[in-house]
Amino acid sequence: MTDQERLREQLERFRSDFEKLRAEVAKVVVGQDAIVEATLIALIAGGHVLLEGVPGLGKTLLVRTIADALHSQFSRIQFTPDLMPADLIGTHVLLDSPQGERKFEFQRGPVFANVLLADEINRATPKTQSALLEAMQEHAVTVGGTRYRLDELFFVMATQNPLEMEGTYPLPEAQLDRFFFKLLVQFPTTEQIETILDRTTESDQPQAEAVMESDRVVEMARLAREIPVADDVRRYGIAIVMATHPDQPQATELTRRFVRYGSSPRGAQALILAAKIRAILDQRFHVAQEDLRDVAHNVLRHRLILNFEGQAESIQPDNVIDDILANTVMNAHSSS
Questions:
Q1: 20, 101, 138, 311: which sits with the fewest CB atoms below 10 Å from its CB?
Q2: The domain spanning residue 301 has which CATH number?
Q3: Angstrom distances, CA of residue 32 to CA of 38, 59, 259
Q4: Domains of the chain: total
Q5: How many helices (H) and strands (E) does the chain have?
């Protein structure tokens, strides 16, 4: 078997496993197909997801179902204004040993899991929100000068309520940048509500079964990175990211007028990696321009910081991204 045939076989299995996982989640989660697919892409890419929507749209159900579909350890943290960092990562407690001795022992917090649901993350104070920073970026936490490693599969899905709701604290830019995708959960249609009622008000309620090992998710992540990206496609992705900065030559009119800060290089990394997985799902062995365009909104919407005029005009980051995609051409270079 040649290397190309072996890669083709591996990618076919990748698609098969992805569809199996998506189908298992769809047994419980009604509609929201785009949200489910994007969440699974971020999971496989080794990133984290920020879900935004009003309460009651199934955000918590989605991450619980994904955890059920994986052979993985699941934890849930309900963020509240009085939650402390130690409630997330753990703390040292004084214990009595069987020999009658007393010693401090580290009690791990809920962050030590494979799939972590950070529910209503923007109801906690910035001090507690920032406690997730090291874990999300480094896959480790430091307590009392000792560094503790997390499992290789560590996926944070945070839900947040719209900032207009009472009792919310906006996430700092540094923490927003740690999220691979920001997904906006829309209100379901009439037909979807009917299906939700059928599944939740009858005696037989569907449950997701574990269909994939956590190690397989890590394998799929490694495989996705092997998908090649042509130089012109990579430059196109760089041009999209550079166009989010108002002081760059590639910036569009909306960017210069309404954006204060644009995407970090981490946004470019996420754009390319998500596009690689999109290419695999579309049965291709290379990244195309459309792959980048398909994932651009999810990657960039939380990485654009609007200025005062943008906020006053009720401009949404998606409006700016639409303008960037409409005005950035394929042969653009990262520097011009």
A1: 101
A2: 1.10.8.80
A3: 10, 10, 30
A4: 1
A5: 15, 13
